[in-house]
## 1
Amino acid sequence: MTDCIFCKIVQGDIPSQIVYNGANVTAFRDINPAAPVHILIVPNRHIDHIRDPRAFEDDVLKEMFQVANQVAEMEGIAESGYRLLFNYGPDANLVVPHLHLHLLGGRPLGPMIARS
Ligand code: AMP
Ligand code: ZN
């Protein structure tokens, strides 16, 4: 996709701190981290979001979760623990329309969502 920021990161057209670069999946540090470890795991080919049927083709999601576990090991948070999440839609604040799995850890993350 021409105008997609995460496609551009995968293709190396805009800079990012890449921590894993595979044939199908890439992982890079979030530019505005919410925790000491905040990494985004994305499919290399453009998929809009978790409701896009392409997310369920070719073991894409399986590989994203496998890479997330591997990166958690690399970052030294496999024992202390981490959170994996997808946002979808306005209530969840999905901002970038290229499927991405958030990997968060490196400190106690507290309850899963803020209670309002
Ligand atoms: P979401 O709210 O799930 O769409 O999350 C999008 C995430 O992408 C946010 O945490 C942003 O900080 C992050 N982000 C946006 N632009 C970049 C970028 N150029 N490099 C790394 N992370 C980014
Ligand atoms: Zn894209």
## 2
Amino acid sequence: MTDTKRESTSSNRAAVIVTGASTGIGRATALDLASRGFDVFAGVRREADGDSVAAESSGAVTPVILDVTDAATIDGAALRVTDAVGDGGLRGLVNNAGIAEPAPLEIMPIDALRRQLEVNVVGQVAVTQAFLPLIRSAQGRVVNISSVGGRVASPALGAYAASKFAIEALSDSLRMELHQWGIHVSVIEPGSFGTEIWRRGGEAADSTIERVPEEKRRLYADLIAAVRRLARRTEQRGRPPDAVVRAIVHALTASRPRTRYVVGTDARIQMALARLLPDRAYDALVRRMLRSTG
Ligand code: NDP
């Protein structure tokens, strides 16, 4: 991994760290922020991913090893960034790392539920705790990546939705707690964008379902097939996450950042329908939508 940023951070450029920057929204955000002149630290779990994002940015992004479920790497990353930015602190923390563990709740192995919450919820709090002193020094900002799933739950995505509902609650508390230091907290709520999360979620679902006894699996065969088709379509459509990146940049740079950014027409429509329709009418609409994927 390159250490080139250690010197350049003393140049008073605003520094930002993005977790989960190996692929998707995190990687696109790290590259975009670097192109805008930020000193970007990209949290990755593997050296090869760090080298790849650094190379794509022509060395403008500094990778740091950061697994949000591993206290040692969180502490190591915080030390490394502290060392690099000194008194300048951090202008932004983008809590982006996340996974999807899709499964109907009745048959979801409890270890998969724990993993979902450990990565998407506990990990984000642990990272926030580690970097807040640096954020406070720079009167920086925290940007938490939630989802439309943080406002509306879907079948077979209950655990994921629970993790994102939790992010919404934690962000509200954090926003109020940090107000006294002038630290803004924003939540990004994207609809569906074509990143690795869909393929990875499909693989996670496959390995989960394999562990479920056949008779239980059969109970949910139709739902699982419909959700798989939807995920595959979203992945194939491959909508790039540019609009999500723009929302993150706004949250980090605007003089009046919003507390919430709903990103994508799909997310806006889904939230509006869930808000306006009675629960059972909304449920029926979701059932119809899932049937229509067949
Ligand atoms: P990707 O799968 O492309 O990216 C997920 C990132 O999180 C990867 O860099 C991955 O790293 C990282 N990650 C996973 N587990 C850990 C961990 N334990 N510690 C540190 N990093 C980890 O998906 P997206 O870019 O789509 O997802 C980014 C965020 O956006 C997530 O929070 C997701 O929930 C959210 N989101 C995405 C939507 C979409 O449609 N794409 C919609 C709404 C929200 P590694 O390569 O090492 O696994």
